[in-house]
Amino acid sequence: MEPSQHPETNLQFPKGFLIGAAASAHQVEGNNANSDWWHFEQMGKLPKSGLACDHYNRFDDDFGIAQQIGLNAMRISIEWARIEPEEGKWSAAAIEHYKKVLRSMKDHGLTRMVTLWHWTLPKWLADKGGFETNEGVEAFARYAWFVAQNLGKEVDFWVTLNEPEIYTLLGYKQAIHPPFIRSNYLTYRVMRNLIWAHRAAFKAIKTVLGDVPVGIAKNSACYQPFRKNNFLDSFIIFVFRYLDFYLLNRIHKQLDFIGLNYYFLRKIKFDWRHLYLEMKPNDPLNFSDMGWYLFPEGIYRVLLNLKKFHKPIYVTENGLADARDDRRPKFLQDTLFWINRAIEKKVDVRGYFYWSLTDNYEWHDGFGPKFGLVAIDYQNLKRTVRPSAKIFKQIFSV
Ligand code: FCB
């Protein structure tokens, strides 16, 4: 079935469906000076994040915009490097700050989903090897416990970790992100430790707060063989899917919901020399500014694949870099259409968070990519709502 061409078409979402946007602390707050990223930025190994969007000071205005464009939820992250700037030293000021942030969200009618760790580490922990070591796992459990204890009343949904697989791949296999290492052994070890870190944080939050919803944000692409009916291409896809489910298979007992971060399609072709090659369909209209192949229908397929875990699902990230805002309206409309189809097929999808509310610091790509429903002018940090943001009111406030 083709996606509808008009946002007005009656898409019925379940009562209580969350419609929001997502962001992470380091990408928007600014001056995250006690983190490993900041350190590498000053060394010239990464673009400087500086003031970022100054969300640290402007959060109230930003949540006001979220409310104004019709959102009823936000996913933010808490910055570990602020909460525990030195080992074992917990910052009361940081806790006070995040209390204000979380209350402001509530005052703006936003359900609060909070990620405990979105890729940045306190510098002191990174110096000790971060998640390469068991000590990293224990430190994370202590941090989760502390945040649950001090901010627990102000959080509606907990996300322990953001995209453990992508973190591990970029930092330990491809050496694009800190700590810029290429090691198969450490890739395995960090992945394993992140699984343990999730379980430990899950336990800590439950011990402190009882029966509150705790999940993880997991990245999944939509994989397709480049050549239809080609055994070798299909075999590679089979392996990719197996690896994709590895994390969830290992933690499904410590998971109240699955957070899905879905962005693009990956067309894979078997190759004798490299094992596989990443192929791109030759249609420029379907690319984001970052060259990601946009395929809204893919979210439907991924959601159907996740059905077997029998967990509620929140789309914790989905979006595109589109500075001209000329692909975003149809992208959003089609994505919501396909999520709706998945719900009709009895997948228990309970919310959608667009990445991101505002333009922000896109990791090693710096401030180039424009993901925001709201544009930021980095000269004066002025916010301007992009036209595509009106789709939420059109679809959800009927
Ligand atoms: C995801 C990250 C998020 C953002 C988007 C574009 O993989 O979780 O922080 O960078 O990609």
From TrEMBL:
Single GO term (MF): beta-glucosidase activity
Entry keywords, A to Z: Glycosidase, Hydrolase
InterPro entries per record: GH, Glyco_hydro_1, Glyco_hydro_1_AS
UniProt key word Hydrolase: yes
Keyword Hydrolase: yes
Source species, domain of life: Bacteria
GO biological process: carbohydrate metabolic process
Active site: 317
Family: Belongs to the glycosyl hydrolase 1 family.
Protein name, as recorded: Beta-glucosidase
Species of the source: Candidatus Doudnabacteria bacterium RIFCSPLOWO2_01_FULL_44_21
